[in-house]
Specification:
Two copies of one chain form a homodimer.
Chain A (H helix, E strand, L loop, with lengths): L2 H22 L6 H8 L3 H7 L3 H25 L4 H16 L2 H14 L3 H25 L5 H21 L5 H17 L1
Helix pairs in contact in A: 1-2, 1-4, 1-6, 2-3, 4-5, 4-6, 4-7, 5-8, 5-9, 6-7, 7-8, 8-9
Chain lengths: 189, 189
């Protein structure tokens, strides 16, 4: 195969895993099923990935990164704290409406409790997002504790995403005021 | 069977489900396996529960309620905002160290995306905890937005619990300052 074909095949496998994890559940996505969904022979999976866990891990990281790419880019050029918070809350709404992505995130966090390699990948990914949120807070506040504030803010957003699965009525607007207090309290110090 | 025996059997089934969900994963806990673990015939499960999903739902609610019973009782008699926050942060530490409970919570939230009955049960449970946290905030602050603050605080605690699964180094102490800001900001208004 040419390099570009190889890349396209690998990409089809990642897309197939992203589609199948929410539908079947993490543990049910086998080499055979992901190959069938991608329209390739099962051996092709093992040509591209050391194991099916490795493929699932890449799918989880890729999906989360794609979900957050646009909001993180927007955050980097947000004019102030409030407009940055608007960006994050609107990302929460968009993600919450996309049940497959929420399920993929929840499935991957759960699988990470049983898989050290996946845990390391998600640890790095979380660190990356925390770094971007910390940088945004530092640009707009004198908060010496921007890193801790970023950790709490991201935890609150992920927790709210999960709570929305059992309480879809929880309005993002209701969360805005306490989150504004959380991020602006550091400005005063 | 006498009523007390029936109660004991039902209880054994709930305990078996609480033990098996984190170990096998929600979807793998079958009537047969839960009966074997509890030391009863499979038919006994259906005598006590309409379905295995019903048993799993009861196990999820029971486990979460038991995990939070002591902290919620302590919160009700906390002397001030800070001591209440200490109680919640120490509950976060205790729960984070108990991998089975974290996995059971994550498994049940994930299962709830696929099961409306479970979703309704977890919705009620979340509402109950939010009510208790709201009441604590109202006792110690003049926060008009105590309900929204409670929703964000619980989301932050649940999110931190999940983030700890991929980042065990995240210290609870680091979260204290931003969470203090979150809950005390309402006192000033």
């Amino acid at each position: 195969m040419e390099a570009s074909d190889e890349h396209a095949t690998r990409e089809r496998l990642v897309r197939a895993a992203i589609a199948l994890i929410p539908r079947l559940g993490w543990g049910e996505v086998t080499t055979r099923k992901v190959a069938a969904h991608a329209g390739v022979r099962p051996g092709v999976v093992h040509y591209h990935f050391a194991s099916v866990s490795d493929l699932l891990g890449e799918a989880a990281v890729r999906s989360t990164r794609e979900t957050l790419a646009a909001p993180m880019a927007a955050l980097a050029s947000a004019e102030d704290l409030r407009s940055g918070l608007d960006i994050l809350l609107s990302a929460l709404d968009t993600t919450a409406d996309d049940a497959s992505t929420v399920m993929l995130m929840a499935e991957s966090l759960l699988a990470a409790t049983r898989d050290a390699g996946l845990r390391a990948r998600l640890h790095d990914l979380l660190g990356e997002f925390r770094g971007e949120v910390t940088a945004w807070l530092r640009r707009h506040t004198g908060d010496e504790h921007a890193e801790a504030t970023a950790a709490v803010l991201l935890a609150a957003l992920d927790g709210a995403l999960l709570h929305r699965t059992v309480d879809p009525s929880l309005p993002t607007d209701a969360l805005r005021l306490p989150l504004e207090r959380l991020v602006t309290a550091g400005s005063a110090s």
